[in-house]
């Protein structure tokens, strides 16, 4: 996997063709997308055109996509892999990830749609089996549809669960990593287990704040704005670089691939050229000290009502989350099962406090 990739989250299909075309001409070779981004078809057209124009060959590309949470069932894996291949106009994917470890019930009225309850909330599938999903992905590797497989947003327990049964190595755990959320324990765990890490949202995903508000009616309590951090500004000034290049170099210098997005050709170039300098040991330490922890997590899944009650919800749960009235909504499954999960989480937190 290249150390530098192109993120396509929140890139509209109307602009994605030119976006990908520019990136390939600049030198990008890793294009990261997902079924849920709803832009695979447009990316496929861009890739097809780039190959036809001999800007790049298929062998030079590294294309990754992801299994949507509504497809988190072993029986559905094949259909979603084939759907992504068709949309991307590819014979194989270089990397395919389980996007998140918890799943949703499908809406039978349309492929890829999530079922909703009478309140309009997404309906969680409380029986998500990550081992069965992984084994179904291994079958797709054997079929030649996928070259490598991995996960995204998985915690230590979930990674270990797959390591215990996997016949094919976990190629990466793609997780949210930026200066304010460094997830050092998880990163160290994965490195010790020989599971490579890929960083997403390394620039703080500034566009996602509006996205959550408009699409989910969800407002993050304290949205982290790492690009504006004074420490990052000072380091950038010292190196005569932009803040984004400093934030990306912090991870790539630790051998963690990054997949930032961009909103202009200038930003695409800046991001791509972030590896022509090194941060000093002191500067790396200064950025390391900016870590806030869970309070800075952007993609916490809480924009899905009741997600924290799912047995495979991967992130730490706070007392505030447990006491939300949303926990008893039908979207999380039966009230009894939800209550059991809630008590289990409370016990875990109590144990941690003790």
From TrEMBL:
The record marks 66 as: Lowers pKa of active site Tyr. One of its GO terms (molecular function) is oxidoreductase activity. InterPro entries: AKR (IPR020471), Aldo/ket_reductase_CS (IPR018170), NAD(P)_OxRdtase_dom_sf (IPR036812), NADP_OxRdtase_dom (IPR023210). Pfam families: Aldo_ket_red. It comes from the Eukaryota. The active site is at 37 (proton donor). Residues 330-354 are annotated as: Disordered. Substrate binds at residue 99. Transmembrane segments: none annotated. PANTHER family: ALDO/KETO REDUCTASE. This is NADP-dependent oxidoreductase domain-containing protein.
């Amino acid at each position: 996997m290249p150390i530098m990739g192109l993120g396509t989250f929140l890139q509209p299909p109307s602009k994605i063709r030119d976006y990908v075309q520019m990136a390939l001409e600049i030198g990008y070779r890793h294009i990261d997308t997902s079924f849920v981004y709803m832009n695979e078809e447009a990316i496929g057209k861009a890739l097809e055109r780039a190959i036809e124009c001999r800007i790049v060959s298929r062998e030079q590309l590294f294309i990754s996509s992801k299994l949507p949470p509504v497809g988190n069932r072993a029986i559905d894996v094949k259909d979603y892999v084939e759907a992504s291949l068709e949309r991307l106009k590819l014979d194989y994917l270089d990397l395919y990830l389980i996007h998140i470890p918890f799943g949703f019930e499908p809406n039978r009225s349309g492929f890829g749609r999530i079922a909703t309850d009478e309140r309009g909330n997404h309906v969680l599938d409380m029986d998500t089996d990550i081992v069965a999903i992984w084994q179904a992905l291994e079958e797709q590797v054997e079929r030649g549809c996928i070259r490598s497989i991995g996960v995204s947003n998985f915690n230590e327990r979930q990674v270990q669960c797959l390591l215990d049964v996997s016949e094919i190595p976990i190629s990466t755990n793609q997780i949210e990593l930026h200066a304010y959320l460094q997830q050092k324990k998880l990163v160290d765990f994965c490195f010790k287990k020989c599971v490579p890490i890929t960083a997403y949202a390394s620039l703080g995903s500034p566009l996602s704040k509006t996205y959550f508000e408009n699409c989910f009616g969800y407002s993050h309590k304290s949205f982290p704005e790492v690009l504006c951090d004074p420490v990052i500004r000072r380091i950038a000034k010292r190196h005569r670089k932009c803040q984004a290049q400093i934030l990306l170099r912090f991870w790539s210098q630790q051998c963690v691939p990054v997949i930032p997005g961009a909103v202009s050709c200038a930003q695409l170039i800046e991001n791509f050229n972030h590896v022509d300098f090194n941060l000093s040991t002191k500067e790396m330490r200064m950025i390391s000290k900016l870590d806030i922890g869970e309070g800075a997590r952007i993609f916490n899944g809480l924009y899905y009502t009741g997600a924290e009650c799912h047995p495979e919800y991967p992130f730490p749960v706070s007392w505030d989350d447990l006491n939300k009235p949303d926990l008893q909504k039908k979207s999380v499954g039966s009230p009894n099962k939800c209550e059991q999960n809630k008590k289990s989480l409370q016990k875990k937190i109590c144990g941690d406090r003790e």
